[in-house]
C-alpha cells in the first residue's frame, strides 16, 4: 500500500525539508535551526499522529508513538456548524433549541423564528450574525413562512467562502465524492429539489458578487457533498446539529474504532481521546455507522452515504467476533427425521455483497438476497413492536425471531434490551412480582447482552448507554434475587456483584453532559449504589 506523507516543505522557509518532527512526524524542516526556532509555535500542535494518504483510504491518521488508553489525541473547534441537512426540526438559529412555529417569536434582524429575540447565539459572529444580514434581505420568505432549515448550513458555508478564505479552503478541500454524486445521481436530483433551488432562488443574488453564478449550483452541491461525507452530529441542548471539524474529518472509519469523543456545550469543541491503547504505526479510527447493526446493514449504509466498502476485521469475520450478531438459524430438517436442524447460517464471504449463506450443520444454502429479505422483514416487525413495547408482545416476538435468527442476532439483541427494562418496570411485572422464571431470564439476558456489547465496543465508547442500561438492570435483578435467597453468603455475594455493576456505571458515565440521558442514569445509579450499601449494612 502506497502511504505518502502529506508534508514535504520546511514549514519555516518553504525550502525542501530534510527531516520531520520525531514526535508527530507532521512538521517538516530543512534544518535543525529552523526546527528549533519553530518549537514555540509547533508545540501547540504537536500531535501524536501524522496524516498519510493512500489509494484505499484517502487521507487518514497514523499514530506516531504509542498512545495509552484515555489520552487526549487532539481537540478543536468546528469550521462551521448548523442545522442538519436532512430532516432538521424547526429550531432557533441562535441556540438550535426546537421551536413550535405557531408560537415562536422572531429574530429582530431577519424575522426567522427564534427562541427569544435576546438569544445570545443570534450575535454569534461566525454563524447567525452574518447569515442574518443575508436572510433579512429576502422578506418574501418571511411572508410565505417558507423557512427551509435544510438550507441554513449550506448557506453558512457559502457565506464562509466570502468571509474566511482560510476556513473555506479547509472546508472545500474535504472529500465530497462528487464523482459519484453527479447530475444523473439520485442524490443530486433530490438535493436540487430540497436545497439547491431554494438557495439559488432566494439568496444567490444577495450573495453575489463573489460567487460566480454559472457555477453556483455546482458549489452548493459540492458543499452538500462535503457536509454529508464529513459532518458529525453534535447534540446541542435538546436538538442534534451538524458540525465540521478540520482534523476529525480526516479520521477513517472502522467498525472496531480506537477512539471516542466528547463535545463541549456552546462552542461545540470536540475532544478526541483514545478509547483503547493505540500502538505506534496503528491507524487512528472512528465509527461512521451504528455499532449494533449487522455487517450487511453497516456496509450498505457506509457504501450509500460514504462511498466505500468497509473491510475491517469485524466486517471480514462471518461471526462478527463470535457475537453472531448477523447469524441466521437454520430451519431445514435433519435427515429423514422431522426435526429442525437448528444450525447456524453464516455468510461464506462477508466482504462479497453477493455471497452465499450456508448452514454449519446441513446442506441448506441461502442467496444474499434471501438472507437480506428475511433480515429486513424481521427488522420491520422489531421496529414496529419497539415503538410501544410490552412484556407479553415482546416475549412472543422474541420466540418468533428465534425461529429464524441466531439468539444473539442484532434484532434479538434489541428486543432483549427492551425486555430487560420491561421486566421489573411494567405494571404487573415489578421485580417483586416477577416469576422466578422471568427473573432468571432477565439475568441470563443481561449476561448475554453484556458479553456482546463488551466484545463490539471494547473502548466503551459507542455503546455506552446500552452498556450502562444493562449494568443497571443487571444490578436490579441481582438485588431481587438476593431478596429471594435465604443463605446469607449467597445474598452478600449477589449484592456485591450488583455494587460492581453500579460502580461500573459511575465510572462509565462520569463525563456525561448535564441533563443528558447518560447523566440521568448516572444519578439513578448513584442512588441505587447507596441503597444496596444500606441493604448490605442491614444484613
Ligand atoms: C470523513 S472522510 C475521511 C477523510 C478522507 N479520507 C479524505 O481524504 O478527506 C470519509 C471518506 O474517507 C474514506 N474512508 C474512510 N474510512 C474508510 C475505510 N475504512 N475504508 C475505505 N475508505 C474510507 C471514504 O472515501 C469516505 O467517504
From TrEMBL:
Domain SET: 47-289
Keywords recorded for this protein, A-Z: Metal-binding, Zinc, Zinc-finger
A Pfam short name: zf-MYND
InterPro entries reported for this sequence: SET_dom, SET_dom_sf, SET_SmydA-8, Znf_MYND
Highest taxon of the lineage: Eukaryota
SUPFAM superfamilies xrefs: HIT/MYND zinc finger-like (SSF144232), SET domain (SSF82199)
Name listed for the protein in its UniProt record: Protein msta
Organism: Ranatra chinensis
Organism ancestry: Eukaryota, Metazoa, Ecdysozoa, Arthropoda, Hexapoda
Amino acid at each position: 500500500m502506497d502511504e505518502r506523507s502529506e508534508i514535504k516543505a520546511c514549514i519555516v522557509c518553504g525550502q525542501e525539508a530534510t527531516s520531520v518532527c520525531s514526535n508527530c512526524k507532521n512538521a517538516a524542516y530543512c534544518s535543525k535551526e529552523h526546527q528549533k526556532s519553530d518549537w514555540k509555535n509547533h508545540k501547540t500542535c504537536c500531535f501524536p499522529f501524522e496524516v498519510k494518504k493512500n489509494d484505499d483510504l484517502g487521507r487518514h491518521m497514523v499514530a506516531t508513538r504509542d498512545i495509552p488508553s484515555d489520552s487526549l489525541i487532539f481537540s478543536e473547534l468546528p469550521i462551521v456548524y448548523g442545522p442538519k441537512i436532512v430532516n432538521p426540526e424547526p429550531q432557533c438559529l441562535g441556540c438550535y433549541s426546537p421551536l413550535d412555529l405557531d408560537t415562536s417569536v422572531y429574530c429582530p434582524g431577519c424575522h426567522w423564528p427564534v427562541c427569544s429575540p435576546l438569544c445570545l447565539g443570534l450575535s454569534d459572529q461566525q454563524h447567525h450574525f452574518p447569515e442574518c444580514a443575508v436572510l433579512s434581505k429576502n422578506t418574501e420568505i418571511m411572508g410565505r413562512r417558507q423557512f427551509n432549515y435544510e438550507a441554513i448550513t449550506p448557506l453558512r458555508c457559502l457565506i464562509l467562502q466570502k468571509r474566511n478564505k482560510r476556513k473555506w479552503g479547509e472546508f472545500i478541500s474535504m472529500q465530497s465524492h462528487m464523482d459519484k454524486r453527479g447530475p444523473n445521481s439520485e442524490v443530486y436530483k433530490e438535493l436540487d429539489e430540497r436545497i439547491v433551488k431554494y438557495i439559488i432562488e432566494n439568496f444567490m443574488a444577495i450573495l453575489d458578487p463573489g460567487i460566480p453564478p454559472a457555477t453556483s449550483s455546482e458549489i452548493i452541491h459540492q458543499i452538500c457533498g462535503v457536509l454529508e461525507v464529513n459532518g458529525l452530529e453534535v447534540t446541542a441542548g435538546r436538538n442534534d446539529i451538524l458540525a465540521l471539524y478540520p482534523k476529525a474529518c480526516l479520521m477513517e472509519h472502522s467498525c472496531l474504532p480506537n477512539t471516542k469523543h466528547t463535545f463541549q456545550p456552546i462552542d461545540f469543541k470536540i475532544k478526541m481521546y483514545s478509547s483503547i491503547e493505540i500502538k505506534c504505526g496503528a491507524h487512528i479510527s472512528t465509527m461512521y455507522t451504528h455499532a449494533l447493526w449487522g455487517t450487511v446493514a453497516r456496509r450498505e449504509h457506509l457504501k450509500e452515504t460514504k462511498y466505500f466498502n468497509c473491510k475491517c476485521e469485524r466486517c471480514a469475520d462471518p461471526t462478527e467476533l463470535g457475537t453472531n450478531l448477523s447469524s441466521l438459524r437454520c430451519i431445514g430438517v435433519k435427515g429423514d427425521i422431522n426435526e429442525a436442524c437448528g444450525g447456524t447460517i453464516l455468510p461464506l464471504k462477508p466482504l462479497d455483497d453477493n455471497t452465499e449463506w450456508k448452514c454449519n450443520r446441513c446442506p441448506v444454502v441461502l442467496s444474499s438476497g434471501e438472507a437480506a429479505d428475511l433480515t429486513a422483514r424481521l427488522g420491520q416487525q422489531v421496529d414496529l413492536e419497539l415503538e410501544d413495547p410490552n412484556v407479553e408482545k415482546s416475549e412472543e416476538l422474541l420466540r418468533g425471531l428465534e425461529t429464524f435468527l441466531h439468539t444473539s442476532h442484532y434484532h434479538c439483541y434489541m428486543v432483549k434490551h427492551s425486555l430487560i427494562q420491561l421486566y421489573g418496570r411494567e405494571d404487573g411485572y415489578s421485580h417483586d412480582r416477577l416469576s422466578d422464571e422471568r427473573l432468571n431470564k432477565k439475568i441470563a439476558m443481561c449476561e448475554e447482552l453484556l458479553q456482546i456489547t463488551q466484545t463490539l465496543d471494547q473502548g466503551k465508547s459507542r455503546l455506552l448507554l446500552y452498556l450502562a442500561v444493562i449494568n443497571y438492570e443487571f444490578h436490579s435483578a441481582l438485588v431481587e434475587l438476593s431478596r429471594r435467597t435465604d443463605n446469607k453468603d449467597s445474598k452478600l455475594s449477589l449484592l456485591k456483584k450488583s455494587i460492581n455493576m453500579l460502580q461500573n456505571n459511575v465510572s462509565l458515565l462520569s463525563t456525561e453532559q448535564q441533563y443528558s440521558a447518560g447523566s440521568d442514569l448516572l444519578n439513578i445509579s448513584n442512588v441505587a449504589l447507596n441503597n444496596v450499601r444500606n441493604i448490605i449494612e442491614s444484613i
